[in-house]
C-alpha cells in the first residue's frame, strides 16, 4: 500500500460515511467561521476607520477645549475654559506656517430641520464655519457650492447640508439647491449639498447643516459657545513643527501661565489613527482567542469521532495488516482522513466567515465599509484546519497502528 493508495482509501472511507463526515466537518466549519468571521469583521471596521481618517488627511490637527467626562456618572469632571471667538481669530492671524485653518463651532447637536410639512428627527448638527471648513474636514460637494466670502462677511442665511439631511427632507425627488429650510427657528437657503461621508460617529458627518460662522453666533445669542480650530499643513513632514508652533501660539493667545498645563487639547489625525490601530490589535488578539477556544472544542469532538471510527474498523485494520500494511501506512490513512475532514469543514467555515464578518462590519459601520477579503486570515484558517486534523487524528492513528492483527481479526 503506497501513499497515493492510502489517500484514495481515506477518501473512500470518508464518502462511505457521509453523514458522519458532514457532521464532523460542520463542527470544524463552526470553529473556523468564528475565527475568520471575527477577524474579518475587525479588518472591515479597520478599513472603514482608515477611510474616515484618510478623508481628514495625515497632516491635519485640531485644537479645542478639553472636556473629560466621568464614565460612571456621565458628569463633567474637568473642563477647560471655552475657546472664544476672539481667541480663534487671534490664533489664525498669528500662526506663521501658512497652514489652511478652519474655524468652527457646534451650535446644536440635536436640531430638528423642517422643509414645508416635512420634519427630520432631532439629531441634526447645526455647525457654524468658514469657507475652509469643508476642504479641511475632508468633505466634497455633490451639488451647489461652498460658503463664500460674501456669505461670511454679511452672515447671510445660507446653508450647506449633509447627504442624510437632503435624503430625509427631499427624498431624492426634489433638487435641494435654493430650497428654504428652517433650523432653530431661522430660515436658510440651501446653496450646497455634500457627498456621503464615512466616519466614526454613526453617520453624524452626514447630518450636518453648515452655516456662516457669524450667523451661527447670532443664532446662539447669549448662549455659551466654544470654538474649534482645525489646521492642515501643506506637507505632512512639517506636522511636528506645526503642532509645536500651534501649541506655543495658543498658549500665548489663551494667556496660559508658564509651568501650567495647556488649557486646550490638540489632537492629531495620525495619532488617532495609531490609537485606533492599537485598539483593533487588541480586538484581533481577543478574536483569535475566542476562535481558538471554539476550535479546541471542535478538535476534541473530532478526536472522539476518530476514536469511534478506529473501534468500528478494528477488523478492517486487522485485514489490512495481515495483507502487509505497515503501522506507518495505517497511521497515514487515519491522519489523511482527519485532515481531509478538517479541510472540508475549513473551506466551508472560511466562506461563512467571510460572509458573516463582512456583514457585521457593514452593519457596525453604517453601510460605509467595503467587502474585505482577508487572505492572511484565510490562509491561517486552512493552516489551523491542518493542525486540528493532525492534533485530533494523531492519537487515533497511533492507536490503530498498534493493534495486534490477530486480535483485530477476532474483533466483532
From TrEMBL:
Keywords: Cell membrane, Membrane, Transmembrane, Transmembrane helix. One of its GO terms (cellular component) is plasma membrane. Residues 21-247 form the MacB-like periplasmic core domain. One of its GO terms (molecular function) is transmembrane transporter activity. It is a multi-pass membrane protein. Residues 290-405 form the ABC3 transporter permease C-terminal domain. Its main location: membrane. Belongs to the ABC-4 integral membrane protein family. This is ABC transporter permease. It comes from Spirosoma rhododendri.
Amino acid at each position: 500500500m503506497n501513499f497515493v493508495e492510502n489517500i484514495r482509501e481515506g477518501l473512500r472511507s470518508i464518502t462511505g460515511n457521509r453523514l458522519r463526515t458532514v457532521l464532523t466537518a460542520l463542527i470544524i466549519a463552526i470553529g473556523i467561521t468564528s475565527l475568520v468571521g471575527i477577524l474579518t469583521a475587525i479588518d472591515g471596521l479597520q478599513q472603514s476607520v482608515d477611510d474616515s481618517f484618510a478623508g481628514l488627511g495625515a497632516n491635519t490637527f485640531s485644537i479645542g477645549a478639553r472636556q473629560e467626562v466621568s464614565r460612571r456618572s456621565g458628569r463633567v469632571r474637568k473642563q477647560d475654559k471655552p475657546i472664544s471667538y476672539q481667541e480663534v481669530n487671534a490664533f489664525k492671524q498669528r500662526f506663521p506656517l501658512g497652514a489652511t485653518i478652519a474655524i468652527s463651532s457646534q451650535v446644536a447637536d440635536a436640531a430638528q430641520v423642517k422643509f414645508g410639512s416635512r420634519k427630520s428627527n432631532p439629531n441634526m448638527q447645526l455647525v457654524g464655519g468658514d469657507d475652509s471648513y469643508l476642504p479641511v474636514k475632508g468633505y466634497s460637494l455633490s451639488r451647489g457650492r461652498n460658503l463664500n466670502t460674501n456669505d461670511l462677511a454679511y452672515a447671510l442665511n445660507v446653508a450647506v447640508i449633509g447627504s442624510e439631511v437632503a435624503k430625509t427632507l427631499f427624498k431624492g425627488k426634489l433638487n435641494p439647491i435654493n430650497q428654504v429650510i428652517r433650523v432653530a427657528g431661522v430660515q436658510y437657503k440651501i446653496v450646497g449639498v455634500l457627498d456621503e461621508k464615512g466616519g466614526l460617529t454613526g453617520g453624524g458627518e452626514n447630518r450636518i447643516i453648515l452655516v456662516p460662522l457669524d450667523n451661527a453666533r447670532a443664532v446662539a445669542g447669549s448662549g455659551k459657545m466654544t470654538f474649534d480650530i482645525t489646521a492642515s499643513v501643506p506637507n505632512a513632514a512639517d506636522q511636528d513643527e506645526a503642532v509645536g508652533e500651534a501649541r506655543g501660539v495658543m498658549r500665548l493667545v489663551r494667556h496660559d501661565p508658564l509651568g501650567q498645563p495647556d488649557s486646550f487639547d490638540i489632537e492629531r489625525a495620525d495619532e488617532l489613527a495609531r490609537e485606533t490601530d492599537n485598539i483593533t490589535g487588541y480586538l484581533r488578539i481577543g478574536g483569535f482567542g475566542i476562535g481558538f477556544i471554539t476550535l479546541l472544542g471542535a478538535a476534541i469532538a473530532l478526536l472522539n469521532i476518530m476514536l469511534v471510527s478506529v473501534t468500528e474498523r478494528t477488523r478492517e485494520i486487522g485485514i489490512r495488516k495481515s495483507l502487509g500494511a505497515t503501522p506507518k501506512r495505517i497511521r497515514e490513512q487515519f491522519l489523511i482522513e482527519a485532515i481531509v475532514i478538517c479541510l472540508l469543514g475549513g473551506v466551508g467555515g472560511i466562506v461563512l466567515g467571510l460572509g458573516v464578518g463582512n456583514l457585521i462590519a457593514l452593519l457596525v459601520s453604517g453601510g460605509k465599509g467595503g467587502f474585505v477579503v482577508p487572505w492572511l486570515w484565510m490562509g491561517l484558517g486552512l493552516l489551523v484546519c491542518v493542525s486540528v486534523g493532525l492534533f485530533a487524528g494523531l492519537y487515533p492513528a497511533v492507536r490503530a497502528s498498534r493493534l495486534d492483527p490477530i486480535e483485530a481479526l477476532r474483533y466483532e
